[in-house]
Specification:
The complex is a heterodimer of chains A (251) and B (223). Chain A is 49% helix and 2% strand. Chain A is an all-alpha fold and 251 residues long. Chain B has 223 residues and is mainly α. Chain B has one domain (15-212). Helices cover 45% and strands 10% of the residues of chain B. Chain B is globular, with a radius of gyration of 16 Å. Chain B starts with a strand and ends with a strand. Classes of the chains: A mainly alpha (251), B mainly alpha (223).
Amino acid sequence: MANESNSAPSASDALHRPERGRPRPPDSPARTLLGNFFAAMSGDGDDADDQYRRALTDLRKHVDLVVVEIARSHSYCNARDYPTRWAHVHAASELRHPAALPFLRNLILTPIPPEESPDPHSFSTVGEETILRTTAVEGIGHLAHNRADAIEALFEALRQPSLSIRRAAVQSLLASPRGRKLRARISKSLPEEQQFLLDLKRIDVRDVPQIKNPERHLSEAGRRGGIAPAPSLLGDEAKTESGNQAPRRKE
Amino acid sequence: MATCTVPTIPDKATTGDSLYGPRACWQAFIDWAWYAHGFQKTYWDDGFGYEDCCNTDLPLARIFGAMWLLNYSADDYWNEEWSNNCLHWARRYVRDQINDLRSLCGDGTKIAWAGSGRVELYLGCFYQKDCAGRAETLLHESRHLGGKSHDANFPAGSVFGEGKSGADSTWGYEGAWMYGALYLWWFYADGRRTTTALRQAARQRANLVIDNAFATHPGFTIA
């Protein structure tokens, strides 16, 4: 059983909440549409997918205004606020409209700032910036089905010094209607040591090697386990222990 | 004792906190999660959320939201047999492995540390990752508690630091990176009670890990 004692730790920390006013772009109809889309990205309930589709449809109806708003709003984001920045790139990608191409292309061609994390294994700002760009590449990939300028933007992406950006670009190019014909040109655009990107398999999770019997990967203490599963969503009474009582939710 | 400040809080709709936060604000779940993962009050008060455990501005509610995701994202979440897929058993693996869960300031970018049954989560975990990313962190660290250290250096061009230690040699090594990527992949492919956008974000993060965290690229990518 976890937490049998709650003896004094060697050191705990304190967290303060600053008073801050976040800069916001000016309100506009397009900003409202974008805000609705962001809210729908986290929608709840049985109609969440319908909410998301409706919000996306509304974005697409006003695509020219929305693209400008995405770029403006993105520029207001804290550079380290990667989830919010990703939401902007995701919105631009989901528009699946040529008007979004300049924003997406510009992001891909913007050099990734140097790593800011002292321990990138734990958290990598280069990694987060890369995710923004691979999302943008895939957004351009949607346009590459019928637009030559999108194909060329993907080839520009191949020149970026990032394995993941190149991987996403290769996948998008190969998935385009001209993919097979483009293979030789893609190959010429890749350094020798990254030619393997042409042969990566796009597969379903059910087709990758899984973990057979993960129980054998438990520590000795973990094997003793015995902790009950989470309560069912219908609600069960949970056990509590004295001395380390769980916090109470505010009524 | 260190003192730190809540950093910029990302839009909660995009991180999933506006979805999972209210769901996790359920006393039966809070009670269970608290004991199942060995939360230590001393490490979750003083501003980390113990006094306001449903406030998703604060670390405690943000990890409760991630735990809700971890525990209820399989369609038949109660079927957590080891023979099932990772989306089902990850919650069991995490609660069996972690018996002491603490929050600390860290350096602003550090995510987590694991050792001797204990997992420390830092501000980077709460404020730089979305709910699925935090769930992945719990599983990644749990795998370390299961006795598997990283065994290789990051490959050329890796975003995690080319040539530095901390990579897993291969997918088949079944290390912490594989565990995390596999979970995110399943969440993308078959996650329930979630949204399209959160699943897409998980897919992007899983592909980043597949591309960059293995000394030898696994040779596949997420369709």
